[in-house]
Sequence to fold (391 residues):
Amino acid sequence: MQISTTRFLILATAIILASSLTARAAELFDLPDAVHSRWISFENPSGAKGQGGRENEGRKGAPSRVIKAGELVRIAEIEGPGVIRRIWMTVRAEPQILRGMVIRIYWDGQLTPSVEAPLQDFFGVPFARQVRFESALFSNPEGRSLNCFIPMPFKGKAVVEVENQSPVDCNSLFFDINYTIGDKLPEDLPYFHAYWSRRNPTVPRQDFEILPRVTGRGRFLGCNVGIRALGDYRAAWFGEGELKIYLDGDREHPTLVGTGTEDLVGSAWGLGRFDHLYQGCLLGDTKNGLWGFYRYHIPDPVYFYSDIRVTLQQMSGAMAERIKEKIKPENYPELVVGHVRFDPEIHEGWQNFEAPQDLCATAYWYQSLPSPALGPLQGYEQRMKDLLLDE
Fold:
């Protein structure tokens, strides 16, 4: 019996999907030898077997605690080998806490943190906003919790700390760190890393570094990005900049390059609110020119073998008539084509131009140790500046 090409492709696709789902289902009843499940929280700070819920005769005696202004607390210290499987936290949704608290993770006795970022930014949303969303790596089901599902393997020891760098007390930090110990891990194990940075404002023609060049072997997982258009440039479309990924010796030109900011997150011709598995736009405040989005390279892996650097251009665009109407002559921008300033007498139609922006990003990747020393985290006052929280 002959079947059409279309029917054959549908049947083949169904078989592939069924095989994939069967493989995933099989993982649910895989029972590895000598791998043990553990949870750490304030109800069992060590995660030790049989030591949970001891406070108040086991009747919810220590679900949370205050983290005072300026206080640093080690919330987990885990002997490996093991894998952190999930991190959940919740705090009062105060901007000073969401961006003033810092999370750090250290692997295998290193003095340099492999993860260092403001709390809310690490969990997927920039600019100290709480937003309901779900992605493959993070979620916030109802806009009041923080979930991370990135597997984080380690051989020797995992240390997780939170520091309240804000001037106000965090009145209640709740958390769970769910992990396994005894896992069989590869010899050339890549370790999870996260890096946050902000530049306010950026400098035209100096691309923002989502991830400065790091050396080692690994995989770039992606990033979440926050952009605030500045001054007159709020009247223009902010998202003409291209993502560039420099791999394994690239210097002047990258191997991987995108076509525009909204294209990076899988949309086109503008950007609206959405949250999908690997891409989404969680903030879209056109009045204030404030945007927040994410892109995770799960089905399209980005591997590197010696080094990697990730940048994002700061380009905006608008019709010439809108530039003349909305942007002051003293602020006329440098156009991308020809790298000359906008001239209202000769330029017509759509124009892309270099524009300063307030830009922050959290990059996520795996790489071999040692972890790179990327410098100290930006201070609290600079992290909180210009968040437009009262508008």
The radius of gyration is 23 Å. The chain is about 15% helix and 40% strand.
